[in-house]
Amino acid sequence: MSFDAKGTVIDYAGAGDCGFIIELDNGRKVQPLYYPDDFTFSQGQRVLISYTELNNVYISCDQGVPCEVTYAEELSCSPYVDLYFENYDSLARDPVHLLEAYMDGDCLYFKLSYSGGCVDHTIDLARMHPWTASSSTVPTFEIRHNANGDLCEAWFTREFRFDMSDLKAEGKTEFVLTAKLIGDEVFNKIFQLD
Length: 194
Prior knowledge:
Oligomer: single chain
Distance between the termini: 42 Å
Number of domains: 2
């Protein structure tokens, strides 16, 4: 039996042989074992899927029912977090290895790696609002990684997509992306909005 549903993609990489899980709006969780080759799941993404449960398949991940996704459509990418002077330090700045970053429509896509495997990590995209109104008019965003003190050394690669359409609505034409990299280096690049 095939189902149609909307949900949010959660990346459980590093948690008991799990990968992407889709938390459906009805509260059910499904694990897409098979899905269209031309679709990329990413953390926080809103999707519409058609799927069939694979009841005779047993997997080691206990976070969702295994399924085959026959159709997947991105409804929206993840929202970013706004940080101001008083809460700049509210999100951790653990280093990452940034593999690629580019604009894909209204979404900023990036792929990164980090070591871990013992606890869940969180990755956010934070808009760093200036301390004063006279500061730079080019919005600055920072990739924020919280390793939660994970000392394990397995290597994970994850993909993310964040919605940048609010910048276009503000009339912005570019933004700066920064990230703290492994080896005390800093990534810093300007991206153009179409």
